[in-house]
Amino acid sequence: MSENVEKLEGVISAAKLPEEGSRQALPSLKIAALLGPMVRTREWEAACRLAGFDASDRLVDALVSHGLAERVADGWRFVDRELVDALVDKVRGTPAWKKYHTMCANALFSVAGDSSAGVARRRADHLLAAGSSEEALEPLLMVEKEAYADGAYEQAHAVLDERQRLMDELELPSDDPRRAQNDWRSARLLQIQGQRRRALRLLDGSRQVLERTDWASERGNAALIHGQMLRDEGRLEEARESFEDATAQYALAADDSGLASSRMHRGHLEMEQGNLREALEFFEASLRSFEQIGDAFMMAVVLSQMSYAWLMQGDHAEAESCAARARDISQEAGHKTTEAAALNSLGEIARDRQDWDDARRFFEQAIILWLPAYDRNLHIARFNLALVEIGVGNYTAAKRLFLDVAERFAEMGFGPREPLVHAGLMTCSAAEEDWEAFEHHQARVLETVEKLGLGDDDLIWMVHKASVLVGERGTPAAKAAARELLMKLR
């Protein structure tokens, strides 16, 4: 046993507390040990108050003077880990174990709510130690939410798995809405990582359960995820219906954050259909709401979307302003995935200006940030990098990227963008004078282009690049194929 444990009684005497304070000193230190080894004063005071005794600052002074603790910002900490363990062991297996852990959990909530994943994780751990597994389900949602925002998708999966195990141990029925909460969140993660079939299966089950509840906000969340998946598949009218359903559910729940999210996704849908003024109106309304709420993650998401809308209007200054602000907000909040999205937007702007070096730098930085999470958007950045290689005439590197992206787009839910990949491979084939491959990819673009929309700037740019190359060196059949595609795009 640590020498510090043995001298604790003498330290309490040295604090010269009143009689009642002396009796309360050891229990208060046991609570501190459960909160510690770093003890935040407000949390300790709140937990002791709930337990019916004081947290004495004179006691802390005595601990510090005897080398058992040291003052730190917002509180103090035990110097000796063995002392912490010994105090915890004095509580373990006694009726005070459940009581004190419950007091700690309630104190954390009274002081900080679930203001961060760190607080929520600690609160859940205290509730689990107290045997209150059902109460721990709610703070675990906050832990998953922040892991998702940070792009820590494996951590988010692990939290949902932990929550699933707890619900199994509690023998909650299959139609319990708390299981449905897990399912739509799992679907969101699986969709981002390209596992669309599993995501859809979970999402369908979640929506069926939630439809039988009065959990309007959760119904809105599930409808919103479904709308995103439909939009990515090019099923835009079905996506609109799903977003409208989400909006109605959020309105019913008076969920301001949900309403702001649905506005953003409505804006994205309008942008996909070329309705840029309407898109910006939705984005601006969404941004105002998230600014009022103080949600840095979603502010950055909306700003990146606004950047694309301004770029599509040809306003580089506004586009760059939005993307740069999204990047700055993300860096300050530590959100890697939204920082990557902002860098990708800046790369798009640089590429549109034909600033190839800047574009390459931004896309490569985005890929680095997206890669650890295996976020499906990293393949968009790699596709954009392939366009840069075409821009500088490095067709071999472009082809290598396009071939890899071609394998990923369908599985990642980017099927409607496949014609863009074929257009890239068509252009590379023309540069390599591989006319058989050129005609193959030209035919694939021609047969699927209507699903994409004939006004896509990247598609038109690549077709014109290919046409120039074909005009310089192509076979008669290749020239005829290029003319046919150009006529289709006009």
Automatic annotation (TrEMBL):
PANTHER family: RAPSYN-RELATED, TETRATRICOPEPTIDE REPEAT PROTEIN 28. Pfam families: TPR_12. InterPro entries: TPR-like_helical_dom_sf, TPR_rpt. This is Tetratricopeptide repeat protein.
